[in-house]
Design brief:
It is built from 18 helices and eleven strands. By secondary structure, it is of the alpha/beta class. It folds into two domains: 122 residues, Rossmann fold, CATH 3.40.50; 250 residues, no CATH class.
Amino acid sequence: MKRHLDSKISQHFSNYKQILILLGSRQVGKTTIVRKIFSDAEYFLVDNEPIRKILESYDIETYKTLIRKKAPLIIIDEIHLLSDPGRAAKIIYDQLDGVRLIITGSSSLHIKNKTAESLAGRKIDYKIYPLTFSEYLNQKGIEADLNFNILNKIIADHEVSRDIPYRFDMENILHEVLLYGEYPHLVEHPRDRVYLENFVDSLIFKDIIELNLIEDKRLAKDLLKLLAWQIGNLINYSELAVALKADQRTIKRYIEIFEQSFIIFRLYPYARNKRNEISKAAKIFFYDTGVRNALIDDFSDLESRPDKGALFENFFISELVKQNSYQETGYELYYWRTKQGSDIDVVLEKGQQLIGVELKYRRKAINKAFQNRYPAAKTRMITASNFY
């Protein structure tokens, strides 16, 4: 089961002595990847109550009762469950000579808040997401090697082909991914909506509620459902607050928590001091379309759905986010829209390079407004028939 991060993680301690921190949502494969690569490491799961009690002592002598004297590698899984994960990691890193420490956590917000000061200079973070489309094909046995075709196709110097013949049933596979997403469980258990529905509850209630990150679990779930209905739309915090009978500060804070917990991400507008360009309102997308569909309880056939274009847009932009992160290409991602309604779905910028990407499930004429405004920009038309 290949992952894009395999090489970087396996080489970490050849390049660094700092703690390896692997962040991502539940069940994206964090434990699988570190136990596969560091198979000789001592493994401690914080969800195990006796282990949690020892680590909560924050005492090196107590830690030594748990950790072998000359353990070369230590994995601490789900460290975010500790009251102060950074303090525990710092004690091990500073006071156990020669130990190489690997820690995983599901909540980026919780770990960053607790470790920002105590682990300064002592850690290197890696983020792992639901499977990329290439990883999904590899784990399905369709493709032998991993690639970054989706991002590389966009940034290439030549135009994207209008239609591409594939060696496999692309239409069927894309339908499966748009409806059920790309969490590793779905590779061997396709179309498992019960898993996704239970997963959504655990994602919200176990990771967010139990960590005391929010006060009102019903508001949190209602907000997440409302965001799921609005994928690809501009966020209006005032309208959300009115609809949910909550104040805007709470709505904004909960959205930040969802983002830091690897459930959603925001795309901000591309605007270069043009008076008629939208410059503030963000769009919301989900890292996984299966999670999104579980939230709105809709796994109906794709061809009959009015939101299939929005699902394809969400899928493609999340692929760009994942591949840009793994490949470290350094692009900034935006959307672009004028106040008159002209728009481009995603804009990639790096240095002087600017690329506008129009995303349509079926091919349509590309909007020329972005290139008219930015003549040096490249433009791409991406559809379900040529995206990979």
